[in-house]
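Appendix B.2, paired examples.
Example (i):
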Amino acid sequence: MSERETIGMENLPELTEQERWLLGECRDGEEGLPQVILDLHSSYPDLPIGEKYRLAQELIESVVRKGVLEVAQIAYVEESPGYLVPVSARPVSLDELRRVWDHPMIWDRERMYDALDSLRLSQTPLERLVIKPTALGELALGELFEAEPQAEPLPAPDPDAPCVIDVVVDVSTLHRSSMGSVTAVIFLHGPTGSFPGDRWSDFPVVILGWWIEGLTQVLSGELSSFEGMFMDGPHAFAVERDDDAVRIALGDYEEQHWVGIVDLGALLRSATAAGRVVAEACHARGWESSDLEVLESAIARSAV
C-alpha cells in the first residue's frame, strides 16, 4: 500500500499561501528556526519587526497544529574541536515552543532582529530547534510540487552573441536596520530573466563591493574567474575567462549552470553604476559605514 493510500488524501489540510511557503522551505528536509525567522525578514521587508515575530510564531504554530510540520530539538556531540554533529532529535510540544518564544533575548527586537544577526539568534533557545515535515507534510509537499513545471533548458553558449547582464537596484527600497545593515531590491537581469528573482531583496552595499572588485580583477587579468555571491540565500553567479571570451553561469554556491558568453565590460559598468547610485543614496541619508567605504574603494579601482 502506498503512503498516499495509508495516510489518505482526504486527510490533507487546507494550507494558506504563507503556510505553503513555510512548508516549501522544508522541502529538502529540516530547517532551523533561526533561518525561518531570517527568511521571513527577507520575504516581508515592509512588515514592522514586531509583526515579523508575530507572523513567525503564528505561522509555525499553525502548521504544527495542522500536522504537516513538527518542531524538534537536536542534540549534538562535538566530533572535533568546533565541529558539532547531530545525533538525536526530540519532539517539541507547542507549549514548549511558546516558552521559547517568550525568551527575552528573542524578543529584544531592536538589537536582535536583523538579517545579518543570525549568530545572536543562535545563542537563544532557538539554537537547537528545527522544523521538519511529518509524513502528512511529505504528502502535502508532493501535492504542491509534483505538478511544478520543469525549467526550460538554458540557452547554449553563443560565442558570436555575448549576452548583456545588467545589475538592477531599486534605491527607493533602501532600508537600514537598527544594527546598521542596509537592504534593498537588487538582482541580475539578462536573457534568461531575473536572478535570483524579480524584486529580490539583499544587502547591496556589501555585495556590490564584492562584485565590483571581483569583476575588475577578471577584466584586468588578475583573476581568471570570480564567484559573485548574494548574502541572503545560497545564490551566486560565476564568470570565467575562456580564451578570449568570458562565460557566465547562474546558480548557487555549489552548482551553477552556464548561460553563455557575457559582455564583462558591460556587466562591470552596470555593477559600478549601481554601486554609485547606492553609495550616493546612503550618503544622502547619512548612512556611513566601513562597508560603504569598501564599496567606494572598489568603484574607484574599477575605473569605469
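Example (ii):
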Amino acid sequence: MKKTVALAALVTAFSTAVGLAPVALAQSDLKSYYAGKNIDFLISTGEGATYDAYARALGRVMKKYMPGEPTFVPKQMVGAGGLTAANYIYNIAPKNGLVLGIVNNPVPFLPLLGEEHARYDSLKINWIGSAASETALLIASKESGVKTIDEAIAKGLTVARRAPAPAAISTPISSIGLSARS
C-alpha cells in the first residue's frame, strides 16, 4: 500500500507540474481513473538501447503499483538526442496523465544551457527520477592550453559528448558558466 501511494504521489507530482487532469484526485478516484487505461510511455532512444530497456522494465513494475493498474505502452519517439520526445511531452501531448516519457540524461539541462531546439521549460517540469547515475568527465588536449575548469570557461572551450548522431551534443563551456563547477 505504501508503494502504491508513493508511486501515485510521484505520478500526481508529475501531472501537477505539466497541468494534467488527475491532479486533485483521491486515491480511490485515481484507481477508477487509471483502471483499464493505457499510459503511453515515450522512449527517446531506439529499440534495444539502454533507455529502452529501462523504460520497458520500469513500465512492467510501475503497472503493479499504479492505482487501477494501467498498462504502460512503450512507444519509441527517437530524435534530436531526446529533444523530440521532451518537446512533444511538454507542448503537444494530452495533459491527462496518460503520457509519460523517459529521455536522455542531458535533456533536462539543455534549455538551461541555451539549446535553441529545447522548447520546454525544465524548471516547470517535475522530473520524477533517474534509472542510473552517471559521472561526467571533461578532458582537454594539451594543445588547447586549458588546464583548469576556470580556463575552459574563460576561453570558451567547446565540449562534446561522444554518442551516435544525432545524440552528440556540443556546447561552448563558457555558456555553462559557473554551473560547470558542479
